[in-house]
Design a protein that fits this description.
Layout lengths: L2 H7 L5 E5 H18 L2 E5 L6 H7 L5 E4 L2 H11 L4 E5 L8 H7 L2 E4 L2 H7 L8 E7 L21 E2 H7 L7 E3 L10 H14 L8 E3 L13 H14 L2 E4 L3 H4 L3 E13 L2 E6 L7 H6 L4 E2 L8 E6 L8 E7 L8 E5 L19 E6 L2 E6 L3 H7 L1
Parallel strand pairs: 1-17, 2-3, 2-10, 3-4, 4-5, 5-6, 6-7, 6-8, 8-9, 9-10, 12-14
Antiparallel strand pairs: 1-11, 11-12, 11-16, 13-16, 14-15, 17-18
């Protein structure tokens, strides 16, 4: 995508723009990984459930992974009968169980309590799994560590084998990874799983090893291919993966406009027509996003700030070759995942428009109005 041309062509700001050619490249790489390893690919729609993108993703995947009833209903609507819908969540509500059974092909219960209460209530055609916690931590920040102490996500291996024979399940689900750029953690996790359960794994139909790998940033896939293909051949399992950010993360751009500029305590501040509320993980993680126009050694340093009254609504210090002017457009890159799906309207600022960029140009997918805001309240 020619970012400079898109900034000029874009009729509105702020706007999310999703790059269809880059999405296709990611999907083709995943399809090659699937062919080489034998795995089944589920797109994790929690990262971005934009229906126009789901329609583009659908031909490349075996189904969708979901975490709630609404996600499951949307996934089934898109995939129809041409793929599977896999649910894993700690938050199953009893009054939603029938509806979940209607649209999900696979449900991984999260705890022994869920198993004891719900497993007999699932529709006969639903493939029953349990989420397990291998107690291997690869994430320093416990807010995002599914294997943290006192984790709510999955049950320990020992707790499972003390209470439920594997032959009463169709599958196991695990997820211990987060934005990994190599497959070492996968090898270690699968080694612990196979060392513990051994040949009992052959009693299962499937194993879901979750997401958390940025496959497009990993040059050598041999470890993944070997690990997954050995699981399949040794235990006759279907092995599912659930990429989300690996599919859409680098396809998304947030284009914003400078709407004010001034000096505060000796530093130049540029206020944008967007906000960290449109990129919530910037504030959540307290990280600085990537900016296309940033020049590491540029002579002009500017603190980019959002337009809400939150004092901490700032994107960070960036450098430029020339001073920023009111009306200049700037582009945050690699914001396709966990941005639009988390964005909100604090202070009443509207959500950005949403565009899909393809070889034929920009196509408006979504525009929000005052009426959308009013209906919330």
């Amino acid at each position: 995508m020619d970012i400079t041309a898109v900034k000029t062509e874009l009729p509105t700001s702020p706007a999310f723009v999703f790059d269809q050619p880059r999405l296709t490249t990611n999907l083709e790489q995943l399809y090659q990984l699937k062919q080489a390893s034998g795995c089944q690919v589920l797109y994790s729609i929690k990262s971005l459930p934009l229906t126009q993108l789901l329609a583009l993703i659908k031909p490349y995947v075996d189904g969708f992974s979901v975490s709630s009833l609404f996600e499951a209903q949307l996934a089934r609507e898109i995939i129809a009968d041409q793929g599977s819908v896999h649910l894993a969540t700690p938050g199953i509500r009893p009054d939603e169980l029938t509806a979940l059974s209607d649209v999900c092909s696979h449900i991984s219960l999260n705890s022994l309590s869920q198993y004891q209460r719900f497993q007999r209530l699932l529709a006969p055609g639903v493939s029953l799994g349990l989420r397990v916690n291998p107690k291997l931590s690869y994430i320093d920040d416990d807010r995002y560590n599914p294997c943290r102490l006192h984790s709510k996500l999955g049950i320990a291996f020992e707790e499972l084998t003390d209470t439920i024979p594997l032959n009463q399940l169709q599958g196991l689900h695990l997820h211990t990874f987060h934005a990994n750029t190599d497959y070492a953690a996968l090898v270690q996790t699968i080694a612990k799983l196979t060392d513990y359960f051994g040949r009992e794994l052959a009693q299962l139909e499937w194993l879901n090893i979750g997401g958390g790998f940025l496959h497009h940033d990993i040059d050598n896939a041999e470890l993944f291919i070997t690990c997954v293909s050995e699981l399949i051949s040794r235990y006759q399992l279907k092995v599912y993966i659930e990429p989300g950010k690996a599919v859409v993360g680098n396809t998304g751009f947030l284009i914003a406009t400078v709407i004010d500029s001034f000096v505060s305590d000796g530093k130049t501040i540029a206020v944008l027509d967007t906000s960290v509320n449109h990129l919530p993980e910037v504030f959540e993680y307290q990280t600085q996003p990537y900016l296309y126009e940033h020049v590491p050694n540029g002579p002009y340093q500017v603190l980019l700030a959002g337009s809400t009254c939150l004092a901490g609504d700032i994107f960070g210090d960036f450098r430029f070759n020339q001073p920023l002017a009111i009306g200049d457009r700037l582009t945050f890159t690699a914001v396709g995942a966990y941005s639009l799906v988390k964005a909100h309207r604090f202070n009443g600022f509207n959500l950005p428009d949403v565009y899909l960029y393809s070889d034929i140009g920009l196509n408006l997918c979504k525009r929000y109005s005052y009426q959308n805001y009013r209906e919330l309240w």
